[in-house]
Amino acid sequence: MAEDRWIYLNGELVPKAEARVSVFDHGFLYGDGIFEGIRVYGGRVFKLDEHLRRLYESAKAILLDIPLDPAAMKAAVLDTTRKNGLADAYIRLVVSRGPGDLGLDPRRCTTPTVLIIVDEVALYPPKVYQEGLELASVSIRRMSPETINPAIKSLNYLNNILAKIEANQRGLAEVLMLNQQGWVVEGTGDNVFIVKDGELITPPPYVGILNGITRQVVMQLAREMGLPCREAIFNLFDVYNADECFLTGTAAEIVPAVRCDGRQIGSGQPGAITLRLTEAFQRYARSEGTPVWGTEPVRA
Ligand code: PMP
Fold first, then answer.
1. Is 32 in the pocket of ligand 1 (CB under 6 A)?
2. How far apart are CA 130 and CA 85, in angstroms?
3. pTM of the shown model
4. How many other CB atoms are found less than 10 A from the CB of residue 47?
C-alpha cells in the first residue's frame, strides 16, 4: 500500500500513518462489525448503491446503528476516493461496534468506528484468467445461516480463513466450501457458478452464502445475453461433471475454474460461456457506476 494514502476515519480524512483505532474496539477484540469491498473502474464506483444497501442490511442483522445515513456514507466513500486520486481502485468500508470494555456486551460500545480505505487492487495473476484455477473442496464447512449467517458480511471471517489455510496448505489460490449438508456453497471470498448443457447454475442464498454483488451482476448479464440461469443447490459431483465452472467476486471479477479435487472440469480450459460473460462483465463494469469526479468518467 502506498505511503501517501488518505483514510476516512470517523468523519475525518487522515494520513495512513495517523489512522489508528483503539485496542478496545470490539471489531478488533471480537470481530464485531461489518464491511464491504467495492471497485472503482475508470473513475466510477461500481454498484455503490448495491454495496451500501448490503452494508446497511448487514448492520441491521447485527443490530449495529451506523452513525451516518446512506447518503452521508455515499458522500464519504466518494470524498475518500477523490482524495486518494485513484481512477481504478478497491474500496474497503468497515463499520465496527467501536471501543467498549473487555466484556462482549455491545451496549458498552457507544460509538461505532467507521473507516474507509481506498487502495490499488491486487488481483489473481493474469495466468489464472487465461488458464483457469485449480480448486479443491475443503474439510471445514461454511457456517450455517442459523449460526452467523454468511449473508452478513461481518468482520468475523475466521470460517473463511480456516478454509484459506487449507487452500494454502495445498498450494491453491481458492477452494470450494460446502455447507453442513454437503451442498457446494461458495469459495473463501467468491461465489461459484457451474455451466451444464448451456445453463448457468449458482447456489441460492438460503444454502448459506454471501449474496455477491458480482454474482447478481453476472446473473443479470446472463439473462440479457439469453443464457438460461437459475439458482439451485448442487454438490461436488455436479462440479466435477460440469461443462464449465467459474467464481465471481468484487476483487476477482470472473475467474474460470478448470479442475477440482483432481478432476478436470469440461475441457480443462476456461469455457466459452465463462469467456463471453467475462467480456460482457468487463464492458459493463466500465460503462456504469457513480462518478467520483463530476459526471465525466476519468479514463485511467
Ligand atoms: N463470498 C464471500 C464469502 C465473500 O467474502 C465475497 C466478497 N469478497 C463474495 C462471496 C463475493 O461477493 P461480491 O461479489 O459482492 O464481492
1. no
2. 30
3. 0.96
4. 20
Q: Indicate whether residue 189 lines ligand 1 (CB < 6 A).
A: yes
Cα-Cα-Cα-Cα dihedral of 205, 208, 211, 212, to 10°? -130
* Strand ranges of the sheet holding 44-45, from the earlier edge strand across to the other edge: 12-15, 6-9, 113-119, 89-96, 33-41, 44-45, 290-291
State whether the beta carbon of 186 lies less than 6 angstroms from ligand 1: yes
Q: Would you give per-residue pLDDT tens digits along the chain (300 residues)?
A: 566 899 999 999 999 999 999 999 999 999 999 999 999 999 999 999 999 999 999 999 999 999 999 999 999 999 999 999 999 999 999 999 999 999 999 999 999 999 999 999 877 899 999 999 999 999 999 999 999 999 999 999 999 999 999 999 999 999 999 999 999 999 999 999 999 999 999 999 999 999 999 999 999 999 999 999 999 999 999 999 999 999 999 999 999 999 999 999 999 999 999 999 999 999 999 999 999 998 554 454
Query: Atom of ligand 1 at shortest distance to CA of 186?
Result: 1
Give the residue, by CA position, lying nearest to ligand 1 atom 13: 212
Choice among 60, 74, 83, 153 that is catalytic: 153
Say how far apart CA 136 and CA 261 lie, in whole Å: 5
Residue-range domains of the chain with CATH? 6-119 (3.30.470.10), 126-285 (3.20.10.10)
Residue whose cell numbers read 441491521: 60
State the residue for C-alpha cell 477440482.
Answer: 260
